[in-house]
Amino acid sequence: MHDHNCEQNCEHVMEVKTKNEANKNLFLPISILAAAGILGVGMVYSANIKAGGAKSSATAPTAAASAPVDPLVAQVIPNSVAFPVTWGDLGKKMIEAGVIDQAKFEALYAERGGMTPAMTAMLTGSNNGQLVMTPDNSGYILNLLWALGLAEQSDVLSKGPMVNYKGVKTENFASTGGWTLGTGNPMDHYAKHNLLNLTAEQQ
C-alpha cells in the first residue's frame, strides 16, 4: 500500500512539473508582450498626470508636454525611450498593404485632439529617424507597433503559440480580433506582409 501510494504521488509530482514547464514555455511570449504593454501604459499614465489627470496622452493639450513631471513618477517611468531602430517608411508601407486604413486611423485621432506633424510623418512619411517613445506619443506608437506585430511575416506568428493554443482560434485573441483600424478582416493581414525583411536569425 505504501509503495503504491508513493508511486501515485511521484506520478502526480511529475505531471505537475511537466505542466509547469509547459506553462513557462507558453507564457514567455505573453510576458514579453505584457512588459511592453506595461511600459506603454506607464508612459500614458505619466502623461495623464502631467495633464492634470483629466485626459490621456492622445487628448492632452500640447502645452501639457512642457509641464514638469511628477518627481515620484519620474523615479519609475522614463521620460523617453529611444529604441535602436529606424522607423523609416513603415507606416506608409502598412497603409499600402491595408494593415492600416489611413481614414480610420486619422478619424480615431481626430476624436482625440488630432495628430501632430510628427505623428502624421510616422504614418505617411518615408524618412522617419530613430523611434523614440515619450509619455505624449506612447499610445500612438503602441497602435503602430500593434499593426506591425500583427502583419509581419514571422514563424513566431505562423507556427508559434498563437496558432497552436489549444481551444482558442487565432482570430479570437485580443491582439488579432481587436485590431479594427485596418482594411478587411484582421486575419487577412496576420503574418502576411514582409515589412521588415527579417533574416532567419532575426526571426
Structure description:
The chain is mainly alpha-helical. The chain has nine helices and two strands; from the N terminus they run ααβαααβαααα. The chain has a two-stranded antiparallel sheet with strand order 1-2. The longest helix has 49 residues, at 2-50. The radius of gyration is 21 Å and the shape is globular. The model is unreliable at 4-36 and 38-66 (pLDDT under 50).
Strands in their spatial order, largest beta sheet = 1-2
**What string, H for helix and E for strand, traces the elements in order?**
HHEHHHEHHHH
Distance between the termini: 53 Å
- Gross geometry: globular
Q: Describe the biggest sheet? A: 2 strands, antiparallel
Strand content: 5-15%
SS elements, strand count: 2
The low-confidence parts are 4-36, 38-66
Secondary-structure-based class equals mainly alpha
Number of helices: 9
Radius of gyration: 21 Å
Residue share in helices?
A: 40-55%
Mean pLDDT: 76
State the gist of this model.
The protein is mainly alpha-helical.
Write the layout of secondary structure elements.
Elements: H1 2-50, H2 71-76, E1 81-88, H3 90-97, H4 102-110, H5 117-124, E2 128-133, H6 138-151, H7 155-159, H8 161-164, H9 174-177
Antiparallel strand pairs: 1-2
Can you tag this structure with a few keywords?
7% strand; mainly alpha; two-stranded antiparallel ribbon; 203 residues
